[in-house]
Design goal:
mainly beta; 10-stranded antiparallel barrel; 11 strands; 3% helix; globular
Length: 202
């Protein structure tokens, strides 16, 4: 379902929930008021090397333009069980949001609709995740460090998790999902290797 331009109103009406699927029990802790500061300038986007970004994203989201397109992913959970999924990134709302739709292949059932934006007030990228267990989660990132993009849950207590994307080539990336353990260490939940899919959406 496509989000309307009244995204802030929609978020403000969502009660705090937690995920119960493989992105397990992640808390819904976000501040709807911060959404008001997330916007683009409406100008054509350029990638970090100065070339035009053919994705329709604004300048602020241009560093993420590489993701636009469809991806096939394969990997495994921390217990070694295999997992397959598909991720589709698209520019939305006049390029002010990068939308990512994630769906695991059967027998797994996890699915999520993610909206990536930019908060001018904090100068951070933001990611809001809506999943099929009714969960809502909010993540932030300072951007790319070389070929790595880390997005961490903004929760300050309870279940804290993160996604780490590592770009390995022009057509491949790895993404790992982990949560913070009781001793302050990151515990792996699952990891995927993704490659560009030139075919039509499944």
């Amino acid at each position: 379902m496509r989000l309307s331009t009244t995204l802030a109103i929609l978020l403000a009406s969502v009660p705090a929930t937690h995920a119960t699927d493989s992105k397990d029990a992640a808390r819904a802790t976000f501040a709807p008021d911060s959404i008001a500061s997330i916007s683009g300038d409406g100008e054509a986007a350029f990638t970090p090397d100065g070339t035009p970004a053919p994705t329709g994203l604004t300048n602020e989201l241009a560093p993420l333009s590489w993701f636009v397109g469809a991806w096939q992913c394969i990997g495994q959970f921390s217990n070694g069980r295999p997992i397959h999924s598909r991720e589709i990134f698209s520019a939305e709302m006049d390029g002010r949001w990068l939308r990512m739709q994630h769906a695991d292949a059967p027998p797994d059932r996890y699915a999520a609709d993610e909206w990536w934006g930019y908060d001018r007030a904090t100068r951070q990228f933001v990611m809001i995740v809506f999943d099929n267990s009714g969960g809502v989660r909010h993540y932030v990132s300072s951007g790319w460090t070389d070929t790595t993009l880390s997005l961490r849950n903004t929760a300050t207590s309870g279940y804290i998790d993160r996604f780490v994307f590592r770009r390995s080539s022009d057509a491949k990336y790895r993404v790992s999902y982990a949560h913070l353990g009781g001793r302050g260490e990151w515990q792996l939940g699952d990891e995927l290797s993704c490659h560009r899919d030139a075919g039509p959406p499944a």
